[in-house]
Structure to design on (395 residues):
């Protein structure tokens, strides 16, 4: 049974308009100051948002990915960087749910920690590592007690200033004939030892509030009870790999879909408020403007059923077999490219005022670009889909 069976799902009750308006006002200041949205996080913790994907019997809300997607769209429409930062925490709670739904209790500590207000960060990305989940340039050295020491550098580590636990991966080459990918969690206390260094280097074009700082690992210790999985490198059907890929792609698509909706709303408002000096009529009556907004709405409307269907398929353990990865990469790619196009069109509808840095559309224009860099990037998405339809390329 899900929370949806127990009570109606009302995203506006969980993230009410007045809360989102506070986030929206603060988003501009957070962007300008290149700071982490601490006040947003405090309010999200207070309402239990960190545990929306945690079962009710463990202290969470018991929602599924389908409901989390809607909530993340709503949050992103107010504060994209806040939504993207929280996304990375929700990825781990979502993976915990995917595994638990399939009878694997390896991430129960993530669920319990999230219910207690602890923040879990996502430390997978590495410079130049286009293998992503299937390989790592981080060394994972086993300790006699069963723990691991990780040495390497992770990039785009969202929630850099505030995480309590860093979920990461590394490669154990201690047995040359059988290297293993090791997935584990390192506690924040490793920052105090100096074995983890969180650089203050996040100075970007957009999504500034995520504070996705570079993280250096200098023998960072993950204890035995935080070693989640050891699996062979390379493409792998392991439930953990599927869980990370599916939740990551779907929640990312949700954030950018939320940005698309906000841009569409701002364009509609601008069209209704602006008046043509030539005709004396509102821009909402101009056929070219109407065409632009229709194009935006057509692209946006197509995203919602795709997201809902794939989220429910994960929740309900649908079997798409080998097509899963292409479906997931595809929806993320379409959401990002559609959102980028919608923001572009919204700026044209709003006119020159949107070019000023004080404009919300100006910030959305910068924020939406971040979607191009998240896995699966355009090249990877196309390669994955081509392989699904044409088979692997010849050597």
């Amino acid at each position: 049974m899900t929370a949806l069976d127990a009570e109606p799902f009302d995203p506006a009750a969980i993230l009410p308009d007045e809360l989102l308006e506070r986030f929206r006002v603060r988003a501009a200041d957070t962007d300008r100051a290149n700071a982490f949205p601490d006040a947003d996080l405090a309010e999200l913790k207070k309402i239990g948002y960190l545990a929306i994907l945690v079962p009710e019997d463990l202290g969470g809300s018991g929602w599924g990915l389908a409901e989390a997607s809607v909530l993340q769209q709503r949050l992103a429409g107010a504060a994209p960087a806040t939504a993207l930062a929280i996304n990375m925490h929700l990825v781990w709670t979502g993976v915990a749910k995917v595994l638990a739904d399939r009878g694997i209790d390896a991430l129960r500590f993530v669920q319990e920690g999230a219910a207690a207000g602890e923040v879990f960060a996502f430390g997978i990305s590495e410079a130049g590592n286009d293998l992503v989940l299937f390989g790592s340039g981080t060394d994972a050295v086993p300790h006699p007690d069963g723990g691991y020491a990780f040495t390497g550098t992770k990039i785009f580590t969202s929630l850099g200033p505030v995480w309590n636990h860093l979920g990461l991966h590394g490669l154990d080459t201690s047995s040359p004939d059988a290297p293993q990918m090791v997935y584990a969690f390192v506690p924040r206390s490793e920052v105090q030892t100096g074995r983890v260094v969180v650089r203050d280097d996040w100075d970007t074009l957009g999504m500034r509030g995520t504070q996705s700082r570079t993280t250096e690992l200098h023998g960072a210790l993950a204890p035995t009870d935080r070693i989640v999985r050891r699996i062979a490198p390379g493409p792998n059907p392991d439930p953990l790999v599927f869980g990370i890929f599916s939740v990551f792609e779907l929640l990312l698509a949700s954030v950018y879909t939320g940005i698309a909706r906000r841009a569409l709303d701002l364009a509609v408002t601008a069209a209704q408020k602006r008046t043509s000096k030539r005709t004396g009529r509102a821009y909402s009556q101009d056929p070219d403007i109407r065409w632009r907004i229709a194009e935006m709405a057509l692209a946006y409307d197509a995203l919602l059923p795709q997201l809902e269907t794939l989220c429910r398929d994960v929740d309900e353990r649908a079997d798409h077999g080998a097509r899963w990865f292409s479906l997931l990469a595809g929806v993320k790619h379409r959401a990002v490219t559609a959102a980028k196009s919608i923001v572009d069109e919204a700026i044209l509808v709003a006119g020159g005022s949107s070019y000023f840095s004080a404009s919300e559309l100006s910030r959305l224009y910068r924020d939406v670009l971040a979607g191009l860099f998240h896995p699966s990037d355009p090249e990877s998405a196309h390669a994955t889909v081509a392989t699904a339809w044409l088979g692997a390329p010849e050597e």
